[in-house]
Amino acid sequence: MAKKLVFGYGLKVRIEPARQTERPAMQLQVKTVLNDIQHFVGFVYAEVRRVRNRRGRIRRIDIRLEAHGGIDGKCSRCLEPAPGYDRLPERRWQFVPLWGIVTWFLYAPRRVACPRHGVVVEHVPWSEGKRPMTLAMMGFLARWARRLSWRETAQVFQTSWEAVYRSVEWFVQWGLAHRKLEGVESLGVDDLHWGRGKGAASFLTVIYQIDRHCRRLLWVGRRRTMATLRRGLAALGTEVVGGLRFVCSDMWRPYLKVIAAKVGHALHVLDHFHITLHLNQAVDQVRRAESGRLRGRPLAKRLKQMRWHLLRRGSRVRGHARIKLKALLASKLATARAWDLKECFQHFWHYKSPAWAGAFLDYWCWRALRSRLEPMRKVARMLRSHEELLLNWFKAKGEISSGAVEGLNNKIRVVTRRSYGFRTYEAMEIALYHTLGRLPEPESTHRFC
Ligand SMILES: [Zn+2]
Hints:
By secondary structure, this protein is an alpha+beta fold. It is 44% helix and 20% strand.
């Protein structure tokens, strides 16, 4: 007579009366291994049993635990030993699969009479709260979930997506509660697009630590408003914010305002790669407009084909593409002039003294403003109005790396792209902390992976 039991997290287990309860010599060895890797004081591994299906194949392994006769159970609230009261029905917790076979811990928890807390369920050291999984299994799934997608992890280890999610969540919450934020000197603040929409809700604000010795995600929040960034800085705490020396960000006005108000003591630097991004966007706008004007002519097609080469740094375009790019630039096209301005701006970053860099910036803006290319003029006006922050880059030179924010953004995109399996924002946030937060991990006596 088969009975279907439903446990939490969507795990369905069909419990059948055990057909065979042999006790081969192997049993002793499994117990020995278990005792070696995970010995729980006050408990013994009583029995390891194979459960077979109708065709005689092993379908799961049940490991039954028993309380050590002479040792009192502990109160689950204060962890103090207390005299036994009664015994609850047997419960099961999913354990790390052995040889790819689903494995369960079985135990009938006692209730203890704690002098302080009354009659409560005893503390069960392999589990936490009412979770249907052992801590070992949660750590195991969480570690694998860094290498595989959550869906793959659930498939490979014969469990549910929800179980993987809850495991990672537990792992991340432990890590966030135990992480140390000392020595954070440089922050990178950025906004990222997430999801499919274009509304305010489909942006994230991320705060990174971008020190040379440690680059990690410190905080992530929804939207990209002043309130979001204020919330993020508050989450890091006044001590961390007070110790900052550098903050690196885009020219996004809400961020500039909050950084000036809250982190005014640190040197505020505009990120190198964001400015390149603005320049590239401007070149692309010029190209698109020109392509539209030349519709039907062969030049229009050539412009379209050159799109990606125009967006790369000139020195990185090689081979046949380089010849084509040169031919295009020799023309009198507006796109060629825009591209030339963009390439010219690269010199800015090579200056050593802020004064010379400032002079170059003036010259470049003057040229761009006279170019009659509206997108380039827009960039010039933007750079001019942020001149001070731009020149801070030279004061911070050598102390913060220009590629750190870009590198971390790229890693985030790998996670969010994989995230179409994430049904909620919360799940994605957990995944980001998990892969990029460099969080400490819960201690365990054995690493299962
Ligand atoms: Zn107690």
